[in-house]
UniProtKB/TrEMBL annotation, chain A:
Residues 135-341 form the ABC transmembrane type-1 domain. Part of the binding-protein-dependent transport system for phosphate; probably responsible for the translocation of the substrate across the membrane. Belongs to the binding-protein-dependent transport system permease family. CysTW subfamily. PANTHER family: PHOSPHATE TRANSPORT SYSTEM PERMEASE PROTEIN PSTA. It is a multi-pass membrane protein. It is found in: Cell membrane. This is Phosphate transport system permease protein PstA. It comes from the Bacteria. The chain crosses the membrane at residues 22-42, 48-67, 79-100, 142-161, 173-197, 203-221, 253-275, 323-345. The keyword Metal-binding does not apply. CDD domains: TM_PBP2. Keywords: Cell membrane, Membrane, Phosphate transport, Transmembrane, Transmembrane helix, Transport.
C-alpha cells in the first residue's frame, strides 16, 4: 500500500498527503475479513458480534490510518464519514433481513388459491385455507377509516394553516400532538367502551375502522399541515389579488399546489393503520368466514389473521406458512398503495418543464 | 383562436371609446393609517391618484410604500394583524365602508407583485384564465379571446402562443412577470397596482415591462412602487416620495407632485436629498 501514499511533505500549501480513493473499500474488506477471522478463532456464535467487531475495526483503522497519513482534520472527516456508513448499514440490515425472511417464508403458500379462499371451517392446524376474508376485512376497514379520517384531518389542517389564529388553533395543535402519541390499544378501548359497551353495538369492521380513524387523523393533520405551510404565500396573495374569494383560493390554488405531498402523507397514514392489530382484535373480533359487510358482524383483517395463525395454531407449520404469506401480502399491499400514491404525487406535482 | 398579423395589439382598439374611458378610476386617500398588530406602519397619508396615469411611489426601504399600496386594494388586511384607519375613495366610494366586500375591491383593483408568482399547477393559458375561472363568471367561448387579448396586452402573446399548454413556471423571469400582468389585466380591473414589478428582472425585461406600463396607462390607473428612481422618472406622470423619520417610526408621505417637478425642483429638501443620493 505504501507506494501509493505520498508521505513526503509537499511544497504546495494546497496539496497534502491523501489516502488513495480505494482505501476505504480496502479497509472495509479488511475489517470484514478480520471480523470473521476473530469470530471464527474466538468461537463466537453470534454473527451480530462478528459484524460489530468488523464495524468497530473499520472505524478505528480508518481513523488511525488517516491520522497517521493525512493529519488530524482529515482523520475527523474520515471518522465522521465511516460512522455514517456504519450507521446506515446498521439501519439497513434489519430492514433487508426482514424483507428477505418474509419473502422467503411467505412465498411458499402465496398463490391465487391462498388469496381467493377463506379459512372457512378449517382448523388453524390444518393445511390449506387462505386470506380472502382477511384481505376483504383489511381493505374495508382501512377504506372506511380513510373515508372518516382524511376529510376531517384535511379540513383540520386547512383550518390550522389558513384560518387558525389564537387560542383555539393552539389548543387544536396541542390535541393533535397528543393524539399522535395515542397507543392503538387505547384508541381501541375508547371505541370499545363507547360504541360497544355504552351504545350496545356489536363487533364489526366499522367499529374497528373508527378506532383506526382516530389513529389516522393526527397523522393526516400533521403531514397536511406541513405541506400546506410549504405553499408560498405569494400564490395565495396572487389569487386573492385577482378577486378570488379565500375558500376558492384554498380549493383551487393552495390544495392543487400541495396535493402531491398531501397524498404521500395520507398514504403513510394508511400504511400505519393497515398494520394495526390491537384495535382490530378488540373491536372486529376476527372471523374465519367471509363477511363482506363491515357494518354487521365480526370480520377478519390481515394483521389479526397473522396474529391468530401464530397464536392459535400450537406451532403447526401450515399455520406458520399462512401467517408468513399473509405478512408478505400485507407488505405488498402497502407497497402497491405507496407506489400508486407516488404516481399520483408525481402526476399532480407542479410542473417545471418548458 | 386567430393568429396575430401585427406584433402588438392594443385592447383599447377593440373597445368602444366610452368603455375605455370608463375603465380607469380616480383614487382619493384621506388620512390613512395602517397597522401591523400594534405596530404603526404608515401614518396619516392623503393623496389623489389620477385616472389613466402612472403614479410612482419612491422612498427608502421600510418607509411603507408597499404597505400603502396594499391598503389600496385591501390586500393589507390579508396579513395577520393588518388593519387600516382612514378612507380610500374609489370614484367617491369608500373601499373600507362596512358594506364593501374586499373580494369585489380586488376584482376592481388588480395587483402585480415584486416576484413573479404564476400558479405552478397551471399552464400559461390557465394562469391567464385563472382570475375568470376562479371567479366563476365567464363564458367558455370568450375565455380563449380574453386570454389572447390579455397576453397581447402584456406583450407576451408572440412568445407563448405556441406553448399555451405548457406550465407557466417554465418561462423566464421577465416572461413570468408579464404573464402575471396578463393574469391581472384579464379580469379587467380599473386600477393596476404594481409592487416593484421589475426588481427581480434584467434590464431588457425591465424595458419590456416599462413599455407595457406606458401602453397600459391608456386604459388603467396605474400605481407603481419602485426603488429605481430612473424608472420612476421614465414611466410615471406623478411621483410620491415616502420617508420615515427613524427606524421603527411610521412611514409618511413627504410630497406628491408631477414627476418632472419632483426630479427637477422638489418642494421639500428631503426629497431632493433622496433623489440626488445625498440621503442619510
Amino acid at each position: 500500500m505504501s507506494h501509493a501514499i505520498n508521505t513526503k511533505q509537499p511544497a504546495s500549501t494546497l496539496q497534502g498527503a491523501r489516502l488513495p480513493k480505494w482505501a476505504p473499500y480496502v479497509i472495509a474488506a479488511g475489517s470484514v475479513a478480520a471480523g470473521c477471522g476473530i469470530g471464527l478463532a474466538g468461537g463466537l456464535d453470534s454473527r451480530i458480534q462478528w459484524g460489530l467487531i468488523a464495524a468497530i475495526l473499520f472505524v478505528a483503522v480508518t481513523y488511525l490510518l488517516a491520522a497517521k497519513i493525512e493529519g488530524g482534520r482529515q482523520a475527523k472527516d474520515r471518522i465522521a464519514t465511516s460512522v455514517v456508513w456504519v450507521a446506515f448499514l446498521l439501519a439497513v440490515i434489519p430492514l433487508v433481513s426482514l424483507i428477505w425472511e418474509t419473502v422467503a417464508r411467505g412465498i411458499k403458500v402465496l398463490d391465487t388459491y391462498f388469496l381467493t379462499t377463506s379459512m372457512g371451517v378449517l382448523a388453524d392446524t390444518d393445511v390449506g385455507g387462505g386470506i380472502y376474508h382477511a384481505l376483504i376485512g383489511t381493505l374495508e376497514q382501512v377504506g372506511l377509516a380513510t373515508l372518516m379520517a382524511v376529510p376531517v384531518g384535511l379540513l383540520t389542517a386547512i383550518y390550522l394553516v389558513e384560518y387558525g389564529r389564537g387560542k383555539l388553533a393552539k389548543a387544536v395543535t396541542f390535541f393533535v400532538d397528543v393524539m399522535t402519541g395515542i397507543p392503538s390499544i387505547v384508541a381501541g378501548l375508547f371505541i370499545l367502551s363507547f360504541w360497544i359497551l355504552i351504545l350496545g353495538q356489536g363487533y364489526s369492521g366499522f367499529a374497528g375502522a373508527m378506532a383506526l380513524a382516530i389513529l389516522m387523523m393526527p397523522v393526516v393533520v400533521r403531514s397536511t399541515e406541513e405541506m400546506l405551510k410549504l405553499v408560498p404565500n405569494e400564490l395565495r396573495e396572487a389569487s386573492l389579488a385577482l378577486g378570488v374569494p379565500k375558500w376558492r383560493t384554498i380549493l383551487k390554488v393552495v390544495l392543487p399546489t400541495s396535493i402531491g405531498g398531501i397524498t404521500t402523507g395520507v398514504m403513510l397514514a394508511v400504511a400505519r393503520i393497515a398494520g394495526e392489530t390491537a384495535p382490530v382484535l378488540l373491536l372486529v373480533w376476527g372471523n374465519p368466514l367471509i363477511n363482506t359487510n363491515p357494518f354487521e358482524g365480526p370480520q377478519a383483517s390481515l394483521p389479526l389473521y397473522i396474529y391468530q395463525q401464530y397464536a392459535n395454531s400450537a406451532g403447526s407449520p401450515a399455520a406458520y406458512d399462512r401467517a408468513w404469506a399473509a405478512a408478505l401480502t400485507l407488505i405488498i399491499l402497502i407497497m402497491v398503495l405507496n407506489l400508486v400514491a407516488r404516481g399520483i404525487a408525481r402526476w399532480k406535482a407542479p410542473k417545471t418543464g418548458r | 383562436m386567430r393568429l396575430p398579423t401585427e406584433p402588438l395589439s392594443d385592447l383599447s382598439q377593440d373597445l368602444p371609446k366610452e368603455a375605455v374611458i370608463d375603465m380607469a378610476k380616480r383614487i382619493d386617500v384621506g388620512g390613512l393609517t395602517a397597522y401591523y398588530g400594534s405596530h404603526k406602519a404608515i401614518e396619516d397619508i392623503s393623496m389623489t391618484v389620477e385616472p389613466r396615469s402612472v403614479t410612482a411611489f419612491i422612498g427608502p426601504s421600510g418607509c411603507g410604500k408597499s404597505t400603502f399600496l396594499r391598503t389600496l386594494n385591501r390586500m393589507h388586511e390579508v396579513t395577520p394583524g393588518g388593519r387600516v384607519e382612514g378612507k380610500v375613495m374609489l370614484d367617491g366610494e369608500d373601499l373600507y365602508a362596512s358594506a364593501v366586500d374586499p373580494v369585489n375591491v380586488r376584482r376592481t383593483i388588480g395587483m402585480v407583485f415584486q416576484r413573479p408568482n404564476p400558479f405552478p399547477t397551471m399552464s400559461i393559458f390557465d394562469n391567464v384564465a385563472a382570475g375568470l375561472r376562479l371567479n366563476g363568471n365567464y363564458k367558455k367561448a370568450e375565455l380563449a379571446d380574453v386570454v389572447e387579448k390579455s397576453l397581447r396586452g402584456a406583450n407576451l402573446w408572440n412568445e407563448v402562443k405556441d406553448r399555451l399548454n405548457k406550465p407557466g413556471s417554465g418561462l423566464s423571469g421577465g416572461q413570468q412577470q408579464r404573464l402575471c400582468i396578463a393574469r391581472a389585466i384579464a379580469v379587467e380591473p380599473q386600477v393596476l397596482l404594481m409592487d416593484e414589478p421589475c426588481s427581480a428582472l434584467d434590464p431588457i425585461s425591465t424595458l419590456a415591462i416599462e413599455d407595457l406600463i406606458g401602453e397600459l396607462k391608456e386604459r388603467f390607473t396605474i400605481v407603481i412602487v419602485t426603488h429605481n428612481m430612473q424608472q420612476a422618472a421614465r414611466v410615471s406622470d406623478r411621483t410620491a416620495f415616502f420617508n420615515l423619520s427613524a427606524v421603527g417610526q411610521p412611514g409618511r408621505l413627504i410630497e406628491i407632485d408631477d414627476t418632472e417637478r419632483i426630479f427637477s425642483n422638489p418642494s421639500v429638501q428631503a426629497t431632493e436629498d433622496y433623489i440626488s443620493g445625498r440621503f442619510g
